[in-house]
């Protein structure tokens, strides 16, 4: 399991680089003089670029090994995170965000693909739980620290990305000196677009893998549409302070971080579909609870904390189950390619979801009248998010559909495992 902690550092940096930005939208908008709706493009373009890079990086890691790809990716993420912090205008912010995405793109897919290379089969559930926990560790430590560093001054958001750069350097050193260099899984692989495309299309002819990809697509599109503006919704529409948002990220991340270790141990084949279905149901109820809550500015933190804990814990069980299911549908020679396809699907769909959410909220603000929910105040605020509750309902529907695809994938796997009659 020692190698799993080095792989954890790569996943942590990949997610921190992505997650850090949305809670800082308010500061960035004030510092650079742009509307907060326009900053959604930073999430969209990051996901599209990172996913596209992951698509090819997965196959490259099959040919040359996981360690070199992870080492290059972490040091590149460090460099461009620092340059992002030095951005002087919105165009420069976009350019450095794109370059950061190029470097960070391979981290998640290659790290997950490396689990069977370094971890015994009996420990893989725990390892997948640890990888998933990296997402929430970035919420526990990275995002609250970044928010604390940013404070109330508009320009101080930059220090949050200096922090990302420093942590990426630390991850690079851990991978270089802690992870063994193994023989490539598929050194004969031809690295041309046609061969790689054939590998991916071959993966999708398998019904189990196809359902997994559809589950990822629905889940991450919903996540992109809903979560991108969730911090801004709480701070602007519901008047939650930046200190309250910091507490919400920290405690929610702590609950999810703890839950991933439990999920990794119990998400065996006979339980995984049920875990995914039950956790999705709880997560959707938490989403409904926050938009239906009548809480005002004085009580919103007391309401948001238990709801956030429920949401994050449920999401931890859901993500761990899905990651383990995807990993079990791979074979050694194309594992990197398939996990790259998963990373591509996730990144592109979360980006499209963020773009859809941005367009939907902008359209609502431009064309719809004042929202009629009596609990929502400050509708005259320039960054007020109109009709966010409708966006929530759409996300819930897509998350339920993701559960259907995961359950179907598990049914196919269990049917294929049955002895055939002769």
Detailed description of the structure:
With 422 residues, this protein is mostly helical. Helices cover 77% and strands 0% of the residues. The chain has 17 helices and no strands. Helix 1 (2-19) packs antiparallel against helix 6 (107-113), helix 1 (2-19) runs antiparallel to helix 9 (158-178) and helix 6 (107-113) packs antiparallel against helix 16 (335-367). The longest helix is centred in the C-terminal third of the chain and has 33 residues, at 335-367. It starts with a helix and ends in a 5-residue tail after the last helix. Residues 370-380 have low confidence and may be disordered.
Short recap of the structure:
This protein is an all-alpha fold and 422 residues long. The chain has helices spanning 2-19, 25-32, 40-64, 66-85, 90-104, 107-113, 115-118, 124-150, 158-178, 193-204, 207-227, 230-237, 242-266, 272-292, 300-328, 335-367, 388-417.
Alpha carbon gyration radius: 21 Å
Instruction: State which percent range the strand residues make up.
Output: under 5%
N-to-C SSE string, H for helix and E for strand = HHHHHHHHHHHHHHHHH
> How large is the count of helical segments?
17
């Amino acid at each position: 399991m020692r190698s799993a902690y080095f792989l954890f550092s790569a996943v942590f940096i990949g997610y921190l680089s992505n997650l850090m930005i949305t809670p800082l939208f308010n500061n960035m908008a004030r510092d650079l003089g742009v509307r907060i709706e326009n900053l959604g493009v930073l999430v969209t373009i990051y996901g599209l670029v990172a996913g596209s890079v992951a698509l090819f990086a997965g196959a490259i890691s099959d040919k040359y090994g996981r360690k070199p790809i992870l080492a290059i990716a972490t040091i590149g993420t460090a460099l461009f995170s620092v340059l992002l912090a030095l951005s002087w205008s919105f165009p420069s912010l976009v350019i450095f965000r794109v370059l950061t995405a190029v470097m960070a793109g391979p981290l998640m897919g290659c790290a997950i693909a490396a689990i069977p290379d370094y971890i015994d089969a009996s420990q893989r559930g725990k390892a997948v739980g640890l990888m998933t926990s990296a997402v929430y560790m970035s919420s526990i430590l990275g995002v609250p620290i970044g928010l604390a560093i940013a404070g109330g001054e508009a320009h101080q958001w930059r220090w949050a990305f200096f922090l990302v750069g420093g942590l990426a350097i630390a991850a690079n050193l851990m991978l270089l000196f802690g992870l063994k260099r193994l023989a490539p899984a598929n050194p004969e692989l031809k690295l041309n677009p046609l061969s790689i495309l054939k590998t991916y299309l071959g993966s999708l002819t398998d019904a189990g893998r196809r359902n997994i990809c559809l589950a990822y697509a629905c889940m991450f599109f919903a996540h992109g549409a809903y979560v991108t503006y969730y911090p801004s919704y709480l701070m602007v529409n519901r008047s939650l302070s930046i200190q309250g948002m910091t507490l919400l990220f920290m405690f929610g991340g702590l609950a999810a971080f703890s839950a991933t270790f439990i999920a990794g141990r119990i998400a065996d084949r006979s339980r995984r579909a049920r875990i995914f279905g039950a956790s999705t149901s709880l997560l959707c109820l938490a989403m409904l609870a926050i938009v239906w809550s009548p809480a005002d500015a004085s009580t919103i933190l007391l309401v948001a904390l238990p709801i956030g804990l429920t949401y994050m814990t449920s999401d931890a069980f859901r993500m761990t189950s899905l990651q383990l299911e995807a990993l079990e549908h791979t074979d050694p020679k194309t594992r990197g390619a398939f996990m790259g396809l998963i990373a591509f699907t996730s990144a592109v769909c979360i980006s499209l979801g963020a773009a859809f959410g941005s367009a939907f909220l902008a359209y609502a603000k431009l064309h719809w009248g004042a929202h009629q929910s009596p609990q929502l105040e400050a509708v005259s605020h320039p960054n007020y998010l109109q009709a966010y509750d409708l966006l929530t309902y759409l996300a819930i529907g897509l998350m339920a559909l993701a559960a259907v695809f995961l359950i179907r994938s598990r049914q196919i796997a269990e049917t294929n495992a049955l002895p055939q009659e002769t």
